RNA sequence: GCCUGGGUAGCUCAGUGGUAGAGCAGCGCACUCGUAAUGCGCAGGCCGUGGGUUCGAUCCCCACCCCAGGCUCCA
């Protein structure tokens, strides 16, 4: 909604963004109504004067910036509701976040909120919305602000921070002003804005949960009561969003893991440690076998390394210096010798490399291991198979010359995309993490060369690339592959990381063609990330209906009556001969019940065999996700179809 | 670690200051069926653990353990 210059010129002097909207005949209320404006790129209230702006863009709540304004305003309404219900409550910050907003409160007497309070807060919010209170902006000096928020310690702290920024920063000399938004005589909040013009523009919101959250995210500071909510510009979009949340819950891999009898987390073992049941074990083995085959075909060599090691190894690697918090505490053995359970495979693979002198002729050397590692995660952060204390990485370390690095990175990306394709994941973006500010191992030149190499391989494949400036680890730049799942969430899967640190720490070398000792480049990479987490992602992506090649049972054969069992067995034999995993579900229960059970187990092909099939050599075929079952399908053609589907792995067949 | 919610049968959950219930799953018997739940019966419980209050605690109080969600997104 750009506005031509002449229309701006035609407006009254002192015109506001809202006047522009009116001149354009835009609605004041409703989902498409503007909620804010961009004046030369700066997001402001509709009540802001447009004087001097060359370009005015009206922003509706249907775009992300506008929706954030709507949510932020809803957060203010929530803060007002909470301060009405808990007089004396202080409030900290209340930003819009992905998919919603939150506000942090400190209630009088250290009171805490419970889920039951959410309904009360929502009810009060609805009243505030129906009162249609204006959001009016005021500007104040810092001193006025401190007085205005005399009873609000967190707001005062924020103002003090602004003061010290202003005096210490480069903008010295300009006295900063504060903006506040006043809704009525009682509620005024320190806020940058912008906001919707009045609370009546809001209303499609839902409070979702309460949580403790530390002030400034610092566990040494007070814990505040955080209320999360979400808001949309229409009831329909809100309902859709809530339905999506339910859908995500139905796809929860922990729930599916139990329902499909794949794995469990027995309390006896401890937090974040899974056991795989036979069916889950089968899926896992299929993934791991496929991984081994891919790696062998890609020129990788399998190595095996122990799960525990003396402290020395992690002292040399530096892990004990900067990663000790993430490691299980040591065991004391052999007269005070400290042993650690390994949190990473890399130092072991380095020892493989260093086990003898290496020649440039051996490079690139690609070492692969399905390496199980253990990391100490705080008890509150473990989550199903996605955040665990024990996990198996499909971990490789590649040692190559600097000249070989671009080609190696290129082949790694081929492998990554190929492998992920086997699992039907084909919607990705890449995230490039570059050199962090301050200390970083390696020279500028090395960083630049490596970062460029990573960037150009990703770009060469036309992949969407997001740069996380300064987000790399100190030991080298990284690219991660983020896969989007069926309901639009993204998950970090593969990572490719250059490392300038470990080759130096371990003194790695090779002898070059010129007979000089050189330092190899080291690349860490994992394709799944971890087998456990990758399985969790697949389960959530497919809502449990895994690609046929990964299904523990691919074909269930259901004889209608006992006397069809012999025929069912013969179909079973033909399936297994064709390499399909099949089972016969005998006729000791009604057919409907058996079909239901197989369907709930997400078996991709349910076959019913009765008189007609015995006579004709056919099966009744009920496909997973199919509309109607098919009768009288010749056994041979069914097997051909199923075998082709399994062989295609996760890829759509032409 | 901290905040919130929760731990009752294998699973999902109901319940009360007077020592417990449902559905599903399991087991037995009968049923032999053409596309998402056949019927009847049986069995199954240290009501998370330890203390306390009480004549009596699964229930009330305290402590602990475990599980889930949250604790990055800056007025």
Structure at a glance:
Helix content is 35%, strand content 25%.
Plain-language structure description:
It is a single chain. The chain is α+β, with helices and mostly antiparallel strands and 654 residues long. It has 20 helices and 31 strands. It has an eight-stranded mixed beta sheet with strand order 14-18-19-26-23-22-20-21. Strands 4, 5, 6, 10 and 11 form a five-stranded antiparallel beta sheet that branches. Strands 28-27-29-30-31 form a five-stranded mixed beta sheet, sandwiched between helices. A hairpin with a 2-residue loop joins strand 1 (34-39) and strand 2 (42-44). The structure holds one RNA strand of 75 nucleotides.
Comma- or semicolon-separated keywords:
654 residues; alpha+beta; 8-stranded mixed β-sheet; 5-stranded antiparallel β-sheet; 25% strand; disordered N terminus; RNA-binding
Indicate the topology.
Blueprint: H1 5-10, H2 17-23, E1 34-39, E2 42-44, E3 56-60, H3 64-85, E4 90-91, E5 96-97, E6 100-106, H4 115-131, E7 136-141, H5 142-148, H6 153-168, E8 177-182, E9 188-190, E10 204-214, E11 223-232, H7 235-250, H8 253-259, E12 263-264, E13 275-276, H9 278-297, E14 301-302, E15 308-310, H10 311-317, H11 319-322, E16 331-333, E17 337-341, H12 346-353, E18 365-374, E19 390-400, H13 405-422, E20 428-433, H14 444-460, E21 465-468, E22 478-484, E23 490-499, H15 502-505, E24 510-511, E25 517-518, E26 521-530, H16 531-542, E27 555-559, H17 565-577, E28 582-584, H18 591-600, E29 605-609, H19 611-616, E30 618-623, E31 630-634, H20 635-647
Parallel strand pairs: 14-18, 20-21, 27-28, 27-29
Antiparallel strand pairs: 1-2, 1-3, 4-6, 5-6, 6-11, 7-8, 8-9, 10-11, 12-13, 15-17, 16-17, 18-19, 19-26, 20-22, 22-23, 23-26, 24-25, 29-30, 30-31
Helix pairs in contact: 3-4, 8-16, 13-14
The structure holds one RNA strand of 75 nucleotides.
